[in-house]
Write a structure and sequence with these properties.
Blueprint (H helix, E strand, L loop, with lengths): L1 E5 L4 H11 L5 E6 L5 H7 L3 E3 L15 E4 L9 H22 L3 E5 L14 H15 L4 E7 L1 E3 L6 E5 L7 E3 H13 L6 E7 L2 E2 H9 L9
Parallel strand pairs: 1-2, 1-4, 2-3, 4-5, 5-6, 6-10, 7-9
Antiparallel strand pairs: 8-10, 8-11
Length: 221
């Protein structure tokens, strides 16, 4: 299964590319913005393409079986850039995938994402992510919206809590998020679901299977 990883140079994207490359069922392609970033992915053995999500990357979609959107504007940017990347660039990629026939789409969102968020702290971020999530749900694609809690750089434990609505906030490591992305790609019962994840006590494949009411299945090309 050939997967384009949008936002590959970020921490989650880099972890995911390495894990996908080491997994027999996947062939990742890293989407990066700067040619200098290719050195890292060459060292990982992962092919990369240079493109800007804001300008559109439709030319890279032919031959892809799926897309993971892990891109983001970053915490140092203002509301306008957040809307440009986390909302508008995501929506453009969703629309381009629909036109190109790339069916599988995993959106990395966040617990709290809501087009009408009233969060005092990062309202613009939650609203931008929420708008993109809603667009994906309406797209007709075989989507998963994966909404983690606050991301940490702690080593992964391989265990999470997962549900459509966990009813609480918390943390999860970026490494465990990367493993969870692979788990939802492998479990076709996750299609059409929104899944919140936090650090927990259940193995990642089992937690996802319980959250979506299905069993872990081989990925569908």
């Amino acid at each position: 299964m050939k997967i384009l990883v949008a936002g590959a140079n970020g921490k989650v994207g880099t972890l995911l590319c390495g894990k996908l490359w080491g997994h027999g069922n996947f062939s990742p392609v890293a989407l990066i913005r700067d040619q200098r970033q290719q050195i890292k992915f060459t060292a990982l053995g992962v092919p990369s393409v240079v493109g800007d999500l804001e300008d559109g990357v439709a030319s890279f979609l032919p031959g892809m079986d799926g897309v993971v959107f892990s891109a983001g504007s970053g915490s140092a940017t203002g509301p306008d850039k957040t809307v440009d990347v986390d909302q508008n660039a995501a929506i453009r990629l969703i629309e381009d995938c629909a036109k190109a026939g790339v069916r599988r789409f995993v959106m990395i969102s966040a617990i709290g994402s809501d087009p009408h968020s009233e969060s005092d702290r990062i309202q613009h971020y939650y609203r931008a992510k929420g708008v993109a999530d809603e667009k994906l749900r309406e797209s007709g694609l075989d989507y998963v919206v994966l909404a983690p809690g606050h991301l940490t750089d702690s080593p992964g434990t391989g265990r999470i809590d997962a549900a459509e609505d966990l009813g609480r906030r918390g943390e999860v490591s970026r490494e465990d998020l990367a493993e969870t992305i692979i788990a939802v790609l492998e479990n076709h019962s996750s299609v059409g679901k929104t899944i919140q994840i936090l650090s927990g006590e259940t193995s990642i494949p089992k937690a996802i299977a319980q959250a979506v009411g299905g069993e872990a299945l081989p990925p569908i090309a």
